[in-house]
């Protein structure tokens, strides 16, 4: 790429980073002015949508000048194109997005918008919208599938287990997460990890904690009822197990779900490597799935379980299903990051981490200090 083109894209990136929300809001305003019907595809509150849109464009402007070919960028944009089908975005809408982007970039650059600059920007945005459109048009599977809630029960006041049945084939891998929309919050999509691997019976299970300020998670815990129909889009994530290397898993709270699905799948195989899972919560009584983990370990000697809690006793509102001690499970007091790291060394292990963004970052840092190789640490994107 010529120096002038690199300079233009770098300058654009600096301009949109001065006020990301205003940039995204201007784009959507232009889009809705070109095609007012597009507004119906998006939720009433669009702050999250605007932030996601900005991050995509910022990433495009950052990557394109770096090298020729852009295979990773092309795959990233293709996945976005396939994902956006769930919003009802049709191929013709990408022309609207392209026009809005070009108009906004021309406005931002002002007097610097000449023929050479216009060519650079239009090529970058044609790549962006063209790849997304092409991927959407050639996607091999339907944009959406659905499942019906057949059981829901509360574990604690802010944690629920939801089980569903789907008549459609389950197209995800153990350890992946799915984009989910519930009837109580239409147009709001959230990512949830199934706690069991896909099976031919169409069974799904999710463990959902109501996060403070989380409209979807709190609605699931408080409002989901048997008979509700949930809609699902694409599966994401790459958590997986290599059979030739020992495994350490670190699961914080409901982050246990994807690792539990992997453990169930691993129990069906003959080449499963030695695996040590650290499962932690703030209070010992919140370790709701120790019974299931103990059941898996009882018939699979390759699995070792360590329970972790930050507190030694439970508050009055928690009634423990079973304590670690009653189940014969090793129990440590402390943070997951500290307890798991101290049990190393982990330099020969593949490390899988699942939980909150804060927990993932803390655990990854401590495991690296404990000798784990960065190339062998897996976790889903930290948002």
From TrEMBL:
EC category name: oxidoreductase
Pfam families, alphabetized: FAD_binding_6 (PF00970), Globin (PF00042), NAD_binding_1 (PF00175)
InterPro entries: Cbr1-like_FAD-bd_dom, FAD-bd_FR_type, FNR_nucleotide-bd, Globin, Globin-like_sf, Globin/Proto, MRET, OxRdtase_FAD/NAD-bd
Gene Ontology MF: a single term: 2 iron, 2 sulfur cluster binding
Keyword set, alphabetical order: 2Fe-2S, Heme, Iron, Iron-sulfur, Metal-binding, NAD, NADP, Oxygen transport, Transport
Cofactor(s) required, per the database record: heme b; FAD
UniProt feature coiled coil, ranges: none
Its EC number(s): 1.14.12.17
Domain of life: Bacteria
Record field: catalytic activity: 2 nitric oxide + NADPH + 2 O2 = 2 nitrate + NADP(+) + H(+); 2 nitric oxide + NADH + 2 O2 = 2 nitrate + NAD(+) + H(+)
Domain FAD-binding FR-type stretches: 142-260
Domain called Globin: residue spans: 1-137
Similarity field: In the C-terminal section; belongs to the flavoprotein pyridine nucleotide cytochrome reductase family. Belongs to the globin family.
Protein name as it appears in the record: nitric oxide dioxygenase
Provenance organism: Gordonia aquimaris
């Amino acid at each position: 790429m010529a120096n002038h083109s690199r300079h233009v894209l770098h300058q654009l990136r600096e301009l949109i980073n001065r006020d990301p929300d205003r940039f995204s809001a201007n784009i959507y305003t232009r889009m809705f002015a070109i095609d007012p019907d597009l507004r119906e595809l998006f939720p009433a509150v669009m702050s999250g949508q605007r932030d996601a849109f900005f991050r995509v464009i910022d990433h495009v402007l950052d990557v394109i000048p770096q090298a020729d070919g852009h295979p990773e960028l092309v795959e990233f944009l293709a996945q976005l194109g396939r994902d956006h089908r769930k919003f009802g975005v049709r191929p013709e809408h990408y022309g609207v997005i392209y026009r809005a982007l070009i108009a906004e970039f021309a406005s931002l650059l002002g007097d610097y918008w000449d023929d050479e600059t216009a060519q650079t920007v239009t090529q970058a945005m044609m790549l962006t919208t063209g790849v997304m459109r092409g991927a959407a048009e050639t996607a091999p599977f339907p944009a959406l599938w659905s499942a019906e809630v057949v059981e829901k029960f509360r574990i604690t006041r802010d944690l629920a287990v939801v089980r569903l049945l789907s008549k459609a084939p389950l197209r995800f891998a153990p350890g992946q997460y799915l984009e989910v929309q519930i009837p109580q919050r239409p147009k709001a999509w959230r990512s949830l990890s199934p706690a069991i691997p896909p099976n031919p019976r169409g069974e799904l299970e999710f463990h959902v904690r109501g996060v403070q300020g989380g409209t979807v998670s709190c609605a699931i815990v408080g409002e989901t009822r048997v008979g509700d129909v949930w809609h699902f889009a694409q599966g994401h994530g790459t958590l997986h197990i290599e059979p030739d290397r020992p495994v350490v898993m670190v699961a914080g709270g409901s982050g246990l779900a994807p690792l539990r699905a992997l453990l169930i799948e691993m129990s069906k195989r003959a080449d499963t490597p030695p695996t040590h899972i650290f499962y932690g919560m703030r209070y010992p009584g919140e370790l709701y799935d120790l019974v299931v983990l103990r059941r898996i370990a009882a018939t699979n000697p390759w699995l070792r379980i360590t329970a972790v809690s930050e507190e030694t006793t439970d508050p009055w509102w928690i009634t423990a299903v079973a304590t670690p001690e009653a189940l014969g499970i090793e129990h440590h007091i402390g943070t997951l990051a500290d307890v798991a790291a101290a049990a190393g060394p982990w330099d020969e292990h593949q490390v899988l981490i699942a939980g909150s963004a804060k927990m993932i970052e803390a655990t990854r840092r401590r495991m690296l200090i404990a000798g784990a190789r960065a190339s062998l640490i897996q976790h889903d994107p930290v948002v």
